Every structure is written in C-alpha cells, then in structure tokens.
C-alpha cells in the first residue's frame, strides 16, 4: 500500500483520487489483516474494490494491488 501511495503521489494525485482497486491475495485467509491495512490508506470512503485469491504472484509476494485514478487536468 505504501508503494501504491508513492506511485499515485508521483502522478501528482492523492489517495482520494483512487476510483477503483483490484486486490490480489495469495491466500484469502490474509484478508482481515490486508483489509485493516487497506483501511488505513483509504479511511471512511474507500474506492470501489474487488479482491480475489490467486495461485501465485510475481516475485513470491503475498499481495498485489492495482488502482485506477481520476486526475483532473
């Protein structure tokens, strides 16, 4: 999540510009911990989200998150 925040900020936006996330977990048993961390970054009005379990992720990571942001020009 810290990496996602850094990427969003490098694009000149804030986490409040995130419209949707796709969250991939290696093990859905990790969802409660992931959800708690996720909530720290998005607060009371999180973006739309889908969360799915996958068989494997690159480099053996446990979680991967992609995001769609809305930027005003």
Describe the structure.
The protein has helices spanning 2-10, 31-42; strands at 18-25, 48-53, 63-69. With 73 residues, the chain is α+β, with helices and mostly antiparallel strands. The protein has one domain: RutC-like (60s Ribosomal Protein L30, Chain: A). The chain has a three-stranded mixed sheet, with no helix packed on it. Helix 2 (31-42) links the parallel strand 1 (18-25) and strand 2 (48-53). The radius of gyration is 12 Å and the shape is globular. It starts with a helix and ends with a strand.
Number of separate strands: 3
Query: Secondary-structure element sequence?
Result: HEHEE
The profile of the biggest β sheet is:
3 strands, mixed
Rg from C-alpha positions? 12 Å
* CATH domain class: Alpha Beta
CATH topology: 60s Ribosomal Protein L30, Chain: A
Number of folding domains? 1
Strand order of the largest sheet: 2-1-3
What are the segments in which pLDDT stays under 50 over at least 5 consecutive residues?
none
């Amino acid at each position: 999540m810290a990496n996602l925040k850094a990427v969003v900020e490098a694009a000149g936006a804030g986490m409040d510009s995130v419209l949707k996330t796709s969250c991939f977990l290696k093990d859905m048993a990790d969802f409660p911990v992931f959800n708690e961390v996720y909530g720290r970054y998005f607060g009371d009005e999180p973006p739309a989200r889908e969360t799915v379990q996958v068989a494997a992720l690159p480099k053996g990571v446990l979680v991967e998150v992609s995001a769609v942001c809305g930027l005003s020009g």
